[in-house]
Amino acid sequence: MSDNGEQYDALIIGAGFGGMYALHHLRDQMGLEVRAFDGAGGVGGTWWYNRYPGARVDAPSSPFYAYTFSKELVDEWEWTETQTPGPSVLAYLEHVAERFDLLKDIQFDTWISDARYDEATQRWTIETDQGETHSAQFLICATGALFVANMPDYPGIADFAGECYHTGRWPHEKVSFEGKRVGVIGTGSSGIQSIPEIAKEADHVTVFQRTPQFSLPARNRRLTREELEKYREDWEDLRASMCHRGGWPFKTHRRKASDYTPEERHAIYEELWEEGGINLSINSFVGVMTDKELNEEVGEFVRGKIREIVRDPETARKLMPDYYYGTKRLILDNGYFETYNRDNVSLVDLREDSIVEFTPDAVRTKHGEHPIDVLVLATGFDAVSGSMLKLNPKGRGGVRLEEKWGERFDNYLGTTISGYPNLFMIHGPGSPGVFFTMPLGGERTTAWIADCIRQMREKDFGAIEATEDAEAGWDREINAIADRTLFPLANSWYMGANVPGKPRQFLGHLSGSQYFDRLSEVAEADYEGFTFEPVHDGETSTEAT
Ligand code: NA7
Asked: Which among 232, 438, 486, 523 is placed 20 to 30 Å from 223, CA to CA?
């Protein structure tokens, strides 16, 4: 071991979908010396942590929410349901880790306590909480878009004496709700997936809702053998479709709303609601996410469904979403609204009856007191940027990322940051991340990074770095796409609006297909927007492209 500890070509932080694939690609396809680290006790990333009852992939999933790089893997893994349950996703990832012999190069239960770039050696050095030091030319940050838990800081919450669980940090042992009074704060995907499951078991569930949500019936069901065989037969074509259709292979209607009467449109919404999944969004009419009037029509249709399902009019009123349909993460549920017809479930609208404080055994709101034994915090994440800020790497001049990202999450192509040479993010701010099927998005981003590394090696470059101009241009580019839609109008985690004090900025690239074309264009234009340094002999010299 040198002064810089163990030496590698690349260090990977994170062993979820993104990090696992990066390890496979860089090690097995490129022959690089690679080591991966994860604070968790096993592979899976977000699926290792999010073990709350009812957790499922909340998009059309099986078998598309999965790796695509190995046809053998596609052929051998038996997906069983249309909406994969969390434990099955985790079992799949554990299988992948064994099948591709990844475990020997992943160090678990290890947090990175420091990551710093050395301009003289053009290398990253990390320190772990195990007291080790490792160094590599490249730092691959697969730190997860939904990792850092967003914890509410209500007065007295630390004094609550009952059991308390955050959905994103769920215990591995089964949590029993039997005979207990449960309070759930949060009605995003995690709350909406877990509330019906908790209600089946608990004595009473009180839901504390800040924003009523649009949620569509998932209509989860078992996959048939024929469907699975057909997916496998058509796999090459399906994968190609996923690449150019925003991550999902489905053909969608390109219907114009104005070609239909309001009655005809309503009949189409009914049909798509019955089909379930995200069909109402992607398969109704062109422009649902850009045209306010059309969006309102779809939103009103869903509100009507909520009114039909929820028997108590007062509860139904509290559940009416009042933002543009789909501009917060659209949720797929299995009986969420129906759960409010149970006698053991009640809803507190925090806009009318806000939380004042916690006592050791209750939540006190403006208008009442709600005794609880268990508190479930389904309050989400400091999404997309949070995990990079937790890593908080030190770039050129020792500048910490929290200084660079104090007011804006500047980046180029969603994968690099000016001032942080040789650092690549997978699913960083400015990337399609959660707007594209993440496993496939991670594969394609990694392939681009790997090709960049290969070219640097061929040309004897020691460092690559995005320019600040390129970052500013990228910011304009992704915002121009977002501004053509209604997404920026919502107080969503896409906009950073869920975390107090977080800069308001759209955190993703809305067109995955266009994004990957842009990555290719940049590479083909000699990595436009980047500067490269020759391998150092100690002096810094910069070659701009
Ligand atoms: P989300 O979607 O961010 O949902 C978190 C929920 O918690 C949401 O309803 C929030 O209300 C609510 N929240 C957050 N902080 C508070 C406080 N302080 N008080 C009351 N309510 C609060 O996280 P999820 O874990 O459900 O899902 C994250 C993603 O995982 C999901 O989109 C899928 O991609 C998978 P708000 O709407 O912000 O007013």
From this structure: 438
